TrEMBL record:
Transmembrane residue ranges: none
Upper taxonomic lineage: Eukaryota, Viridiplantae, Streptophyta, Embryophyta, Tracheophyta
PROSITE patterns referenced in this protein's UniProt entry, alphabetically: INTEGRASE
Protein name: Integrase catalytic domain-containing protein
Gene3D superfamilies in UniProt: 1.10.340.70, Ribonuclease H-like superfamily/Ribonuclease H (3.30.420.10)
Residue span(s) of domain Integrase catalytic: 111-197
Pfam families: Integrase_H2C2, rve
Domain of life, per lineage: Eukaryota
């Protein structure tokens, strides 16, 4: 900073250290009052002071948008925000290992997780749910309503019927199949009007 702001070279450097110093200075530039660095990914990030690092670490690891992630993930989050300091990864790992909440949750293995069941992928009008509602007061000779709902689109078909036997279910399903095609599955309560020869 002193070299970029006032052209002052640090004293007591060997020739090798001076070469390295002038090589590293190419990546830094001073824009009053901040020091910026062009990182290896060609993104310009603001260099922060030691006093600012603790607040940045706290915000990126355990703040509202933090999530108590690992040291590497937290360091990448800091870099994405546009901050840099030379010991970034070392400080981040030290901060994360001292975080109590992270230490309690970081060692979850496959053994601790709930078993995952694969979801059956289905298309529209592939799976229908069917059921009777009723007995309603007699209205135009109809006492029951047969309802079929597509599980994917929530499309509903309903018909008022005089009885709740297997014959009316077959007639209803023939109409349904002719309009929407034969489904992969029909889910019912397995009553005698659905499970019947």
């Amino acid at each position: 900073m002193n070299f970029l702001a006032a052209n002052i070279i640090p004293k007591g450097l060997t020739n090798q250290q001076k070469k390295r110093f002038f090589n590293d200075v190419k990546n830094y530039f001073w824009d009053d009052p901040f020091l910026f660095r062009r990182c290896a990914d060609q993104v310009i990030r603001r260099c922060v002071t030691r006093s600012e690092t603790s607040k940045i670490l706290e915000h990126c690891h355990s703040g509202p948008t933090g999530g108590h992630y690992s040291g590497t993930k937290t360091a990448h989050k800091i870099l994405e925000l546009g901050f840099y300091w030379p010991s970034l990864f070392k400080d981040t790992n030290r901060y994360v290992t001292s975080c109590d909440k992270y230490q309690r949750t970081c060692n979850i293995s496959k053994h601790d997780q709930m078993p995952q069941n694969y979801m059956l992928s289905c298309e529209i009008f592939d799976v229908w749910g069917i059921d009777f509602t009723g007995l309603f007061p007699n209205l135009f000779g109809n006492k029951y309503i047969l309802v079929a709902i597509d599980y994917m689109s929530k499309w509903m078909e309903a018909q008022a019927l005089p009885t709740n036997d297997a014959r009316v279910v077959v007639r209803f399903l023939k109409k349904l199949f002719s309009r929407f095609g034969t489904p992969r599955a029909i889910i019912s309560d397995r009553g005698t009007h659905f499970c019947n020869t």
